[in-house]
Design goal:
It contains 13 helices and two strands. It has helices spanning 5-9, 25-52, 57-86, 96-130, 132-138, 141-159, 187-228, 233-277, 284-295, 297-307, 310-321, 328-333, 338-359; strands at residues 169-172, 177-180. Helix 3 (57-86) runs antiparallel to helix 4 (96-130) and helix 4 (96-130) packs parallel to helix 7. 30% of the residues are buried.
Length: 361
């Protein structure tokens, strides 16, 4: 990517500009609408599920994640849209320094809180599937009401340290974003940025390892159930089908959560480590690209839960398995009358069922 003239103007992170230098307000508006609609729809799905049965610990964490994403989108995106609408940067607005600090604090808190919540969800699934006895005895939905405040409190403590001089929040091009300084010059700033990247990397690694372990345990469960082979042939077929459906639902959901999690978070970690370990010319636009990738996490998360919701998956599966209606041309080309086909098919099915019953142990 070639640095343009606008990038050179705000080449230094601490540069203060009065007007938005570049960017497309339509993109920010679409991101804002997509995030709000997705989180609201996902919360509606969870509310419908709560009416049918009480929420488990996993879905308590999911609810907290979606509500945090929704409140986070509502708290920072209007500032971006206002900045574009008035053609004024955050620091160029009235009380600009406070607005930039608020924006940077919110973005840092939301990113860490998202990482912490998703990591807690992965650990809960690992304990539920890998250690079900421990999970059944010691974990319930009340644990979520304790875990979420602890995660938020730890994130707040980390995010307020720039207020006492350990790290800093700076404005990024085109003037509509503020975040922690990912290319600091002083030692405290470097330690703070490195600590943020390390915490993020640890939570990403923990989430990936837990999800890989869950996938492994699900595969082993399927193998054990297939090897068990008890009951009638029809019963065994039903159990295998039900087991396979549940396993596929878990595998799809966990796999896509992990992929989105890594794609959105890992570029920011790489940028921070790259800035800390090299003395190359500062590339502010590359830091901004990584920051934008991080912001997509809260937008994509609810849609992942909506699309891979078990009820939605079952609906699409039923649509795919629905028999296709014959076209008129296909009916005319068929040399056998439909009644004869149905009669012979029923006879063959009855014969096969009787043969299965005779040979069934």
């Amino acid at each position: 990517m070639v640095m343009g003239p606008d990038d050179k103007i705000c080449y230094h992170s601490f540069a203060v500009t009065q007007h938005v230098l570049s960017g497309n307000p339509t993109t920010s508006a679409v991101m804002f609408a997509t995030g709000v609609i997705g989180n609201l729809l996902a919360l509606v799905f969870l509310a419908m599920r709560c009416k049918r049965q009480s929420l488990s610990l996993f879905y308590v964490l999911v609810t907290a994640l979606l509500m945090k994403d929704l409140l986070g989108t509502l708290s920072v995106s209007p500032l971006v849209l206002t900045s574009y609408a008035t053609n004024t940067t955050l620091k160029g607005m009235k009380n600009g320094e406070q607005l930039c600090t608020y924006f940077g604090f919110s973005m840092t808190f939301l990113s860490l809180a998202t990482l912490g919540t998703v990591c807690a969800m992965a650990q809960e699934r690992y304990l539920a599937i890998g250690h079900p006895y421990f999970h059944e005895r010691h974990l319930n939905n009340r644990c979520g009401y304790f875990t979420i405040p602890v995660i938020y409190l730890c994130c707040i403590i980390f995010c307020v340290t720039p207020f006492v001089g350990f790290g800093s929040y700076v404005q990024y091009c085109p003037g509509t974003w503020c975040f922690l300084d990912m290319n600091p010059k002083d030692l405290r700033g470097k330690v703070y940025a490195g600590l943020y990247a390390t915490i993020t990397l640890v939570m990403i690694s923990g989430t990936v390892l837990c999800n890989i372990s869950v996938i492994y345990h699900l595969v082993k469960m399927r193998q054990r159930r297939r090897a068990r082979g008890q009951g009638s042939r029809q019963k065994r077929f039903y159990q295998r089908s039900l087991s396979l459906t549940e396993e596929v639902e878990h595998l799809l959901l966990l796999s896509f959560i992990t992929v989105v999690f890594c794609i959105c978070s890992f570029p920011l970690v790489l940028r921070v480590y790259f800035n800390l370990t090299t003395r190359a010319e500062e590339k502010h636009y590359a830091d901004l690209a990584a920051l934008r990738m991080l912001s997509f996490n809260s937008i994509i998360d609810p849609w992942v839960f909506i699309i891979f919701n078990p009820s939605v998956l079952r609906f699409f599966w039923r649509q795919l398995r629905r028999p296709r209606a014959l076209q008129p041309s296909e009916i005319k080309a068929c040399p056998i009358q439909p009644k004869l086909v149905n009669s012979s098919s029923s006879t063959m099915e009855t014969a096969n069922m009787n043969a299965d019953l005779r040979h069934d142990p």
